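re: the backbone from monday

yeah here it is again, tokenized this time
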């Protein structure tokens, strides 16, 4: 844009201006500089393509853009300026990174949005360089500006990223209110807070920070408390002036109050526009007086709740009247005297007001009777005086005591209710003289604060508190239980005392326990022999009186947590991370467990020192406790001001001793709960033991497999106090294998204990120990109790043979039902001596096959053919092979002779569980069924149910009941319960019964379900409740306490305590889960690197360390034992070049094995957008990034995703992702609650030197559930790869996909090829296909079962998503598709069970054979309109039945190509068997 001088009208000349009605052409002398008028203004268009909407042209972001529908010029986009303005210039932009192009554009204007005139005639504008062009238009007063596009050389559609309209506005300026800003830095609160956008941001003086209310929580209040009652002239509300904050309108009222009075309106509710062009500032004039001001919001067009970067309250402080305030406190209470002793009452009178007080009096009452009066002089504000009244003597008894200042109210005070103090006087007679009673007290040390170089003298006082004289005796002193000296005490009369001292020399830095005992030999007869000792602590510090931070790195806990701001952040030595309590959950506490009982000196509390953390005041108390005792106050609750200028820290002096310290919060002006980034507890450890394991050894040192091993642990007490008896756990590879008793150990001493751990298979093992595992001994340091011997124990094979089954092979490998199958078994002698001849046995189903194995020398392998065959049965079977089945060979290990694996027969995966449909059992709830069109996206439970039916339970006692046909010790329940009212899901139990007996409560959840919205765009949905919903179901799983046999009657019943408003039960899986696998000898456990199962703490560091060690050749295999292991960051390879977030380096040459998918489970608790550990915004904070040659088996990966993306959230993460390269195999991995289960491939430009597409990748036994996008996607040149014998349920996009995307190194070489999806079972994809192939050659979809797609085909071949071309053959064979197909994209497009869609490119070489298609929602096979050709489709031996709302085979009107049918059977199809729409150029022949 350029600013121009306008041509002046010549005096006396006649100027004719012609314009359409309602349009004013402007001519004048010199114009004001044009300003941007269009930022954030509403925009509309003639059409939009997908997410490229009109609003993008006024959002100030050149990277976002509007695009019209393709191949349909002309198109237009227009901006509504909100009011008429003089338009002088228009700047048009496209994204900066796009290549050069020209667009033909006409610029038009309108005052009413209907009649338009030309501002600048049609012209071709070249976009080069910065991709922006400026157009000087005829100066015209208009409200609407339109850019009409009739051509684009770069794309067959109109495309603009910004339409910037410049000119002058007629809106008059608002005069600024008079006065100063009274809100800056003042306490401020809000009714709700969105994430970290807290109220305090609105008064911190920075528009870069802001407050935002919780989504949809209207009305939403923002309240600031002024320093005093003030006279107000205006309120200024600001947003960030950055153009990225587009225009918006917020509706709010301004209210005020004085003190705790009621709120009154200062300015009625109104809509206030915020525009970046005017600084995003709104000024609201007000008048009145208030101590508190609040904004009450009811709407915001730019977000889901109010937003305020700065709130300024303009005015002046109203003078506050001052008054005195007299208060009184007793000097001694209670007062103890004898009947003959006069009672002297002392008190302190203080003026705590803000003005001086006149002289007055104080009266003393005893037992309700006035006994004296004292004069109180005039007192300045803050001054005090003492008074004394003699109340005489009283008889034995207890008397109430009251002192009242200014009893006649002669002084006018600000508070007349706090003028009295109460107490008591206790009068008692003394005992008769009987015996001495010796006591001792420790009064201090010399020097008072010794250092290690000081000779220390301990001082004390010996007293005789008895009623008779005491003979001479001594005082004995011990230090940490050791005698260090005595002092003589002479004879003491009754009531007499004597000072004593003992010199103990120099001492090392630390805290010591002092115990003084008077008359230790008991030579003096006393009235009380139990009060002769006194204790104290001696602190010797390098810097006198200065302790260390005892909280650093210690375990921290909290009563609640907001998002991912966990307690541990307060003690992690990083001031930028912090803990925050859940909004409004007061009182809220943050506690830290110290390493041992310690003497406390100071507590330091901080929030992040960044300037963005504005001033705030937090109110908290400090408490301490010892062990599990009661909490006691270390510092009473007080308000502490945190200011960025002073480092946002406060230091609070404390005293006392504790093992645990906690802060108890009751207020925070800057957020909805307490916030702490730094918690330091300064002090010195008290005397305590410190148990450590210094050595663990094995006997024998070099054992063989048959030798029992004894582990011996050496335990040392490194503390300064003796330890009580305890135990030590002995470990192998981090797992407990035995325990030994540890006796009491004196300070500085050691003891050695041992226990037998039995035999171990050949391999290398890390041995170790953990002393005091239950924490029964309070220690100086509880974190140093473990030890691992760095030298592994190597167990070798015992002399002799050892036969082992390595593999089972079948012929054919994937037999059809009824096929004759033969087998071979591979047997190895892994022993050290020859094995004689033996028999190898295979059990398959009910058949037992045997074969003869000849003699095998040590290390030899033989492939043994088995006699006989097996007839393949539906569903497959488990193969169990046993070497030396008749025990003819005496082996060194008789426990490793067996191998079991599955054989898959026919279609689908051979899954180890049996599924039971709720509606197929008996039930007392309500049957839920889909409508005839299987409508999706409108909260349709029936459509989203397996088999399109489920059962709803709404009342107590209702149930679903089924009878098992298989044994089981586990359960999976697919169900739906309601979302939480504000979104985010909830948990609720349901009761499980077996044969009528209660088994347990099973927790169901909706935390990963319920997405809202009517759009079908992939990232257009929201987690915020409102309107139509989809993805209604989720799954819960549980291991049962026992195994239940086939024939067990299971019941899911809504009982008392099952609190969900409703339960929709869809299906149940029952599975007999095998015991955990044993750790292979060659593997090293992640526990050796510090991982701890089931403790809820993040194990990522340990897992990453183990994987890195394997990758670097330090270990041979990573073992993940049975347990729950928390993972909050993706496992990958650290990029030495630090090339950025998008350039990730995956792991290579790694083997990771687990104990089974039900046993070894990785999980994350943090949603990706709340994690600070993301390495890639699409890949999440869990799972593994793989580059090549990686084997992963027998684990589960449970993510934290709740949405595909959008809605202010990151994508839900990927379980396994990366290049995958060569040599990678993944088996028996369960992935759930991820955005994508497995994404194979990276774009070539992502670290080009690491380019290595998947080649020979094999995924088998996969169990992928409840994702928000794909299950498994082969992309970026994947080749020669397979997904086999895997199951998928409730995937968001394609359950299985091959996408031959073009972002590869060489498009001619790196097109996808020779990939195969074989024997998989797919159920309930909720957004896209069961299986899809987008480009590539010689690929197949064979022997799969696909059920219940919500809206897309069961199988689809397509060329949308810009793939590389199809080539060779694409085979779809022997598949079963049931209840597939549906309607999508605003329910305007209907898809068949199998759909071929040549969107842009041809799809040649397609064969569909040996396939059953039943109960399709629309067509059985659909040939869909597109720009490509589908030639010579071969459809053979296919059965298509009962297409509900469509044809058996449909050729649409715009499809080109032909199909040849052979032996195709069709019946029951609603609109006909073979249907060709009018105009179609597709020819179908054969039958």
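seq for it, each position gets an aa:
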């Amino acid at each position: 844009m350029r600013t121009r001088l306008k041509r002046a009208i010549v005096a006396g000349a006649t100027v004719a201006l012609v314009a359409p009605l309602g349009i004013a052409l402007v001519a004048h002398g010199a114009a004001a500089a044009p300003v941007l008028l269009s930022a954030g203004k509403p925009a509309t268009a003639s059409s939009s393509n997908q997410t490229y909407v009109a609003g993008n042209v006024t959002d100030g972001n050149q990277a976002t853009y509007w695009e019209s529908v393709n191949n349909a010029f002309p198109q237009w986009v227009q901006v509504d300026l909100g009011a008429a303005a003089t338009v002088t210039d228009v700047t048009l932009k496209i994204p900066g990174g796009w290549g050069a192009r020209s667009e033909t554009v006409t610029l038009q204007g309108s005052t009413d949005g209907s009649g338009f005139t030309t501002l600048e005639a049609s012209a071709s504008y070249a976009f080069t360089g910065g991709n922006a062009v400026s157009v000087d238009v005829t100066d015209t007063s208009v409200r609407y500006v339109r850019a009409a596009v009739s051509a684009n050389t770069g794309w067959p559609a109109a495309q603009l990223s910004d339409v910037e309209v410049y000119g002058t506005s007629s809106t008059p300026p608002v005069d600024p209110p008079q006065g100063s800003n009274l809100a800056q830095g003042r306490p401020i609160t809000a009714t709700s807070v969105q994430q970290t956008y807290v109220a305090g941001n609105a008064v911190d003086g920075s528009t870069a920070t802001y407050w935002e209310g919780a989504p949809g929580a209207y009305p939403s209040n923002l309240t600031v408390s002024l320093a005093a009652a003030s006279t107000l002239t205006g309120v200024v509300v600001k947003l960030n002036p950055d153009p990225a904050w587009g225009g918006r309108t917020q509706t709010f009222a301004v209210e005020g109050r004085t003190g705790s009075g009621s709120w009154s309106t200062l300015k009625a509710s109104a809509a206030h526009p915020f525009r970046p062009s005017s600084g995003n500032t709104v000024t609201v004039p007000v008048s009145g007086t208030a101590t508190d001001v609040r904004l009450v919001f009811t709407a915001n067009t730019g977000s889901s709740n109010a937003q305020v970067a700065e709130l300024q309250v303009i005015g002046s402080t109203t003078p506050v009247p001052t008054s005195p305030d007299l208060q009184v406190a007793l000097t001694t209470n209670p007062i103890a005297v004898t009947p003959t002793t006069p009672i002297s009452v002392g008190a302190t009178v203080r003026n705590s007001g803000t003005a001086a007080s006149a002289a007055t009096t104080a009266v003393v009452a005893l037992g309700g009777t006035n006994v004296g009066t004292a004069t109180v002089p005039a007192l300045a504000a803050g001054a005090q005086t003492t008074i004394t009244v003699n109340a005489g003597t009283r008889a034995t008894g207890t008397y109430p005591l009251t002192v009242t200042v200014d009893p006649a109210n002669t002084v006018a005070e600000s508070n007349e209710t706090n003028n009295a103090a109460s107490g008591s006087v206790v009068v008692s007679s003394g005992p008769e003289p009987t015996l001495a009673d010796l006591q001792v007290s420790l009064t201090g040390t010399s020097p008072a604060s010794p250092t290690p170089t000081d000779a220390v003298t301990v001082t004390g006082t010996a007293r005789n508190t008895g009623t008779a004289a005491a003979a001479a005796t001594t005082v004995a002193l011990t230090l940490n239980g050791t005698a260090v000296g005595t002092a003589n005490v002479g004879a003491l009369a009754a009531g007499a005392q004597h000072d004593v001292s003992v010199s103990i020399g120099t001492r090392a830095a630390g805290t010591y326990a002092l115990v003084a005992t008077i008359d230790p030999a008991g030579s003096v007869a006393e009235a009380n022999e139990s009060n002769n000792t006194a204790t104290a602590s001696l602190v010797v510090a390098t810097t006198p009186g200065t302790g260390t931070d005892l909280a650093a790195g210690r375990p921290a806990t909290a009563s609640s947590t907001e998002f991912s701001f966990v307690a541990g952040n307060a003690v992690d030595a990083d001031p930028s991370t912090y803990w925050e309590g859940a909004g409004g959950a007061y009182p809220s506490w943050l506690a830290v467990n110290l390493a041992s009982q310690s003497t406390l000196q100071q507590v330091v509390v901080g929030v992040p020192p960044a300037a963005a953390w504005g001033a705030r005041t937090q109110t908290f108390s400090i408490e301490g406790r010892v062990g599990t005792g009661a909490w006691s106050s270390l510092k009473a609750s007080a308000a502490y001001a945190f200011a960025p200028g002073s480092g946002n820290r406060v230091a609070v002096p404390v005293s006392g001793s504790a093992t645990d310290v906690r802060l108890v919060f009751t207020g925070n002006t800057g957020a909805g709960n307490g916030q702490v980034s730094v918690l330091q507890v300064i002090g010195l450890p008290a005397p305590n033991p410190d148990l450590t394991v210094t050595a663990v050894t094995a006997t024998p040192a070099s054992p063989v497999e048959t030798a029992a091993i004894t582990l011996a642990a050496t335990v040392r007490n490194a503390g300064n106090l003796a330890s009580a008896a305890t135990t030590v756990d002995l470990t192998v590879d981090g797992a407990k294998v035995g325990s030994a008793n540890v006796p009491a150990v004196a300070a500085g001493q050691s003891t050695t204990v041992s226990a037998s751990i039995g035999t171990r298979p050949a391999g290398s093992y890390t041995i170790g120990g953990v002393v005091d595992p239950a924490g029964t001994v309070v220690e100086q340091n509880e974190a140093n109790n473990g030890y691992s011997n760095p030298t592994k124990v190597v167990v070798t094979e015992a002399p002799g043979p050892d036969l082992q089954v390595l593999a089972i092979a079948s012929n054919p490998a994937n037999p059809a039902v009824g096929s004759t199958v033969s087998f071979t078994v591979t047997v190895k002698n892994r022993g050290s001596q020859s094995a004689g001849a033996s028999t190898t046995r295979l059990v398959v189903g009910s058949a037992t096959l045997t074969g003869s194995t000849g003699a095998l020398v040590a290390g030899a392998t033989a492939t043994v053919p088995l006699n006989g065959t097996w007839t393949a049965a539906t569903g497959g079977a488990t193969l169990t092979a046993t070497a030396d089945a008749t025990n003819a060979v005496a082996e060194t290990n008789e426990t490793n002779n067996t191998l079991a694996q599955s054989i898959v027969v026919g279609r689908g995966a051979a899954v180890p569980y049996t599924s039971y449909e709720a509606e197929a059992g008996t039930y007392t709830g309500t049957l839920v069924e889909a409508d005839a069109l299987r409508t999706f996206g409108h909260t349709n439970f029936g459509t989203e149910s397996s088999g399109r039916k489920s059962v709803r339970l709404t009342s107590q006692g209702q149930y679903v009941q089924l009878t098992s046909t298989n044994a089981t010790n586990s359960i999976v329940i697919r169900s739906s319960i309601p979302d939480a009212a504000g979104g985010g899901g909830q948990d609720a139990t349901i009761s499980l019964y077996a044969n009528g007996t209660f088994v347990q409560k099973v927790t169901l959840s909706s935390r990963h379900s319920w997405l809202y919205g009517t759009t079908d765009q992939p990232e257009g949905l929201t987690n915020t409740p409102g309107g139509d919903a989809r993805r209604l179901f989720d799954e819960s799983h549980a291991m049962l306490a026992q195994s239940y046999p086939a024939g067990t009657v299971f019941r899911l019943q809504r009982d008392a305590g099952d609190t969900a408003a409703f339960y929709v039960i869809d299906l149940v899986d029952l599975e007999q889960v095998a015991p955990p696998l044993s750790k292979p000898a060659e593997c090293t456990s992640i526990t050796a690197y510090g991982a701890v199962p089931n403790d809820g703490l993040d194990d990522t560091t340990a897992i990453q360390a183990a994987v890195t060690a394997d990758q670097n050749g330090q270990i041979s295999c990573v073992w993940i034992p049975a347990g729950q292991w928390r993972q909050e960051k993706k496992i990958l390879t650290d990029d030495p070049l630090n090339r950025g977030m998008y350039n990730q380096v995956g792991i290579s040459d790694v083997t990771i094995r687990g104990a089974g998918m039900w046993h070894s489970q990785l999980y994350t608790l943090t949603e990706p957008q709340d994690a600070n550990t993301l390495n890639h915004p699409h890949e999440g904070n869990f799972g593994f990034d793989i580059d090549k040659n990686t084997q992963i088996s027998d684990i589960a990966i449970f993510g934290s995703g709740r949405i595909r993306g959008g809605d202010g959230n990151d994508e839900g993460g990927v379980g396994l992702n990366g290049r995958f390269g060569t040599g990678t195999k993944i088996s028996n991995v369960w992935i759930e609650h991820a955005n994508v289960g497995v994404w194979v491939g990276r774009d070539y430009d992502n670290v080009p030197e690491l380019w290595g597409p998947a080649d020979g990748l094999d995924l088998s036994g996969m169990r992928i559930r409840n994702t928000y996008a794909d299950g498994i996607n082969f992309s970026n040149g994947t080749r020669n790869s397979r997904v086999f014998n895997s199951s998928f349920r409730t995937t968001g996009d394609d359950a299985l996909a091959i996408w031959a995307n073009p972002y590869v190194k060489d498009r001619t070489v790196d097109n996808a090829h020779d990939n195969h999806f074989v024997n998989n079972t797919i159920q309930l994809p909720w957004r896209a296909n069961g299986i899809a192939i987008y480009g590539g050659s010689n690929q197949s979809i064979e022997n799969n079962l696909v059920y219940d797609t919500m809206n897309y085909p069961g199988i689809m071949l397509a060329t949308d998503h810009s793939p590389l071309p199809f080539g060779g053959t694409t085979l779809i064979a022997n598949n079963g598709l049931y209840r597939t197909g549906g309607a999508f994209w605003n329910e305007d497009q209907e898809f068949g069970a199998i759909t071929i869609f040549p969107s842009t490119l041809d799809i040649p070489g397609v064969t569909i054979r040996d396939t059953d298609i039943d109960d399709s929602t629309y067509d059985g096979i659909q040939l869909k309109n597109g720009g490509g050709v589908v030639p010579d489709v071969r459809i053979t031996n296919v059965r298509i039945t009962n297409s509900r709302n469509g044809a058996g085979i449909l050729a649409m009107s715009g499809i080109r190509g032909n199909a040849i049918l052979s032996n195709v059977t069709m019946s029951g199809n609603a609109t006909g068997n073979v249907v060709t729409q009018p105009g179609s150029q597709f020819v179908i022949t054969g039958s």
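The first strand starts at residue 24 and ends at 25. Confidence is low (pLDDT under 50) at residues 1-31.
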